[in-house]
Amino acid sequence: MERMPNPSRVLYTSWSSTLRLPKSTFPPRTSALDRAVLLKKCTDDLYSWQLHERPLNNPFVLHDGPPYANGSLHIGHALNKVLKDIICRFQLTQGKRVSFVPGWDCHGLPIELKALQQQQRKPENPALADDTRPDADAVMVRNIARELANRTVEEQKKGFREWGVMGDWDGAWRTMDRDFEIRQLEVFRRMVGKGLIYRRYKPVYWSPSSGTALAEAELEYRSDHESIAAFVKFPITKISDDLASKPGVDLANLYAVIWTTTPWTLPANKAIAVQENMTYAIIELPGGCQLLVAESRIPHLSKVFLREPVKFLVQHISGKELIGTTNYMSAFQDQIFGPQPFIHADFVSADSGSGLVHCAPGHGMEDYEACAKLGIEVFAPVDESGCFTRAALTRDPELLEGKSVLSEGTETVLDYLEANGHILHTHKYVHKYPYDWRSKLPVIIRATEQWFTDVGCIKDAALKALEDVRFIPDSGRSRLESFVKGRSEWCISRQRAWGVPIPALFHKASGAAVLTEGSVAHIISVIEKRGIDSWWTDAREDPAWVPPHLLDQSGETAYERGKDTMDVWFDSGTSWAMLRGPQSQDTGPLSDVYIEGTDQHRGWFQSSLLTYIAHQSAFKMSGPVLTAPFKTLITHGFTLDKDGRKMSKSLGNVINPSEVMTGTLLPPIQRKGNRARTTNNNGSVYDGLGPDALRLWVAGSDYVRDITIGTPVLKAVNASLHKLRVTVKLLLGALQDWDAKGIVDYEKLSQVDKMALLQLSTVNRTVLEAYRSYDFYKAVNTINRWVNMSLSAFYIEIVKDRLYADEPQSLSRRAAQTVLFQIYMNLLGMLAPVTPLLVEEAWHHTSAAIKNDTQHPLKRPYPLVQGEWNDQALASDLPSLLKANDAVKLAQELARNEKKLGSSLQSSVHLVFSSSDSDPSATYRLFQRYLVELESLFVVSSVSLHHLPIDRGFIDQAEWHFSTEFETVEGDKARAYVLPPAAAKCVRCWRYNVLTTSDAEETLCDRCTNVMAGINEMAHAFSGDCYEQTVARH
């Protein structure tokens, strides 16, 4: 019989083959092909699964603030959509049935202008070459705009899905969809019935560049706008008898002085406002000209244009004395309007101008309010293009007609005033001024007939409803409340074609409008049959649109349809109607969360609140207080480049989300042939980590503030993601042979194992609270810190020896696997909301034994924590143990710096405490309790404890030694000494714990000797030819 080869000699040349080194198929990066498959599983498939499996009575609704269907996606879109997805995914881990139906805002001016520009480029439409007005061809414009919006929605949808955002993409809504428009009109109908919609001729923000009225939310303010300001004098035609009797007062030479930053509004002047509680004076200039000004403004006027000392004729004139007794003559409309009055206005201030304010109720909101109370009619001689009409100057209509009020019209007004002796002084003035947020050009205030929503009668209910809303951050409450408080009405009509029509009828002869709940209901019924485009395509005199009671006996009609469309904020503001039945009268919050950027306090948040309050009030007879449509309102900041600048095409700092996913914003790396890396056109290779990189950047940012993104930030994100992938791979390798049947009960675990579970329990609590508080960056920071310090640098380092070198079915190895299994499952649970692709990929590479015994990490509840893990006694001891561990690690680093130490196993540790044998300190007793596990805890070959005074002989005689002092939690001082180990090295596990040896080359420790005995026993059962294979397997 052939002799069996000596196992010891065979193993000597291949000790690693006797170790159970971790093996896993989990790759360093995901291939593009695998990513597509995994992405579908963790988005579409997961969303569909939870709709069918999660109970209907435990819902979570996040209502999508619709992005505008105009243009490519940018990093701001990514911030918004990924935040929404993280919120939904966390709620999924809490057992909720999540509802997230994406939406798009499709109407409005930007899309319409793009449609017109596209049409202009077509040679078969020469009539539109220079025409961007809404009367060009409404039907054509609407068709092109719809095509443009449809194309953009699909492009954006593709991008959103590539970011790992799950939702009901097939059921996504668009504001241009038939169902949405009908729901919107139904909300409008009820508001009409409640008396909240009315038409009025009054000043509104008007955009000459866009040719339409604008709401406050459609404005942006520039602080560098430059105007020509002027001090202008108007001749006073009447004063009180008391003033007329004052010595020196000459009515023929007496003028009222006003200051204006908008001289173009002077042709529309209808009054001069004073403050009844201010005091005024009449002064005389050299040459006899007498001026009425506020006393407090005279020092300022002296600096500006009163170059010579002035003579006071009358002082201490009460503003109240001027009201009702003083008239003046306009420089432009004197022949039409005659003498104009002095009135009181609260907005008159002693801090600017002359203390007298020119009022043009057709061109100023405050002017309108002040004049309307007194019955002063509105006059606005400016057309929709922002040019003067003939009525601006009746005595010479051609002088101003057709001139833009923002350019040559202003200059002509000033020239006219100068020629007629009305100008005292002009100067340039830089100030804050409203601009059209779309065209980026200045707007004007212009009186037109518009449709308004009465906000004044519902604002108290809206403010009351906000009391029950949770705001994140807290400052969002005061911001939204301030916008609601400052609003009395909402101009909802727009003079454009691409939108939902305001369903009003107009009498063809008188122009009188008809808008009742009944007439709107009739029009909705026609739209349901014919489609909304028929509002523009049907003949103007088609009687089908007119309610029967307005038709004459022959069936003919004297009415025609209006041309105005609704403000797009009304469109998106009524999107909450998609969360309920079309005719539902239910009240209460419809969505758990609304989340958008900070600019939406005056936009979508406000319009949603107001329309929902108005809708509820239309049904309210009695019962509960009206509510907001949202329970929690979250606002996020804007994205900035690495230098803190806002992103814009002109600066060239706009970031495409795909650049984050492909890694092309980072420096190129050396080509290593990995298929998951991105290669660009010039051959450079980039470290592309896919949507998880984008999502981890979002989750790791404190989003309630403005967020920076650039190469430094993304380097840190990629490093964190790589670390997570390495950790997952290591855990999968450690659990390659995991069997749930071998799980070890908690009471049988070592203290080190229990420490790891205690840390896991603690990190789970912190992460869970961070997710619940929507502080995602705190969750990410906690996970990263735990993975890097408590897991990778602590527990995994500790248990490697057990995992690799212990007998496979030993209690110690199974205990380590038990803990690592809990760590693995909870880590995936922590990461599920943030990096779902990583979690899905990890699960794909998880062993069948784990899959068969455990639910998918994206589908199961999080966290999986057992109460016994939170061992308070251990929690009390752990800080002192960790302080000692830190001291040991520091002393080892000192040894490494001196080239004395490589592996930490090449050291022995001696802890010296400031206590005695007769009176051991509490700290000493603490470490004494854990003595048998300190070797594992410190990952060294031996540990001993000592009191003071210590016999330093063994220290001084050592080849080298290093030490560091540490202070325990109890406040005791101690010192950790690191020395070379006294024992010999085990050639299998490399621990220095072999006390005697006869053959240094084949020295094994007791543990490894026992393990090898088992391997040798198996080896004798086989022939020598298969021996190496057997060893490799076991």
Radius of gyration: 40 Å
Give the N-terminus to C-terminus distance in angstroms: 26 Å
User: How many DSSP E strands?
Assistant: 36
The helix count comes to 33
The level of helicity is 25-40%
For the sheet with most strands, the description reads: 10 strands, mixed
**Strand-residue proportion:** 15-25%
**Average pLDDT number:** 90
Shape estimate = elongated
List the helices and strands and how they pair.
Layout: H1 7-12, H2 32-53, E1 59-61, H3 75-93, E2 97-99, E3 103-104, H4 109-120, H5 138-162, E4 173-174, H6 178-193, E5 197-207, E6 212-214, E7 219-238, H7 241-244, E8 254-260, E9 271-274, E10 279-284, E11 290-294, H8 298-304, E12 311-318, H9 319-322, E13 327-329, H10 334-337, E14 339-344, E15 357-359, H11 365-372, H12 397-400, H13 408-419, E16 423-436, E17 444-454, H14 459-466, E18 470-472, H15 475-485, E19 489-491, E20 493-494, E21 505-507, E22 513-514, H16 517-530, H17 534-537, E23 559-561, E24 565-566, H18 568-573, E25 591-597, H19 604-619, E26 630-636, E27 639-640, H20 657-662, E28 678-679, E29 685-686, H21 691-699, E30 707-708, H22 711-734, H23 751-772, H24 776-805, H25 811-831, H26 836-844, H27 848-853, H28 872-897, E31 908-913, H29 922-929, H30 931-938, E32 942-947, H31 953-956, E33 962-967, E34 973-979, E35 984-985, E36 992-994, H32 1006-1019, H33 1027-1033
Parallel strand pairs: 1-2, 3-4, 8-11, 9-14, 18-26, 25-26, 27-30, 31-32
Antiparallel strand pairs: 5-6, 5-17, 7-8, 7-13, 7-16, 9-15, 10-11, 10-12, 13-14, 17-19, 20-24, 21-22, 21-23, 28-29, 31-34, 33-34, 35-36
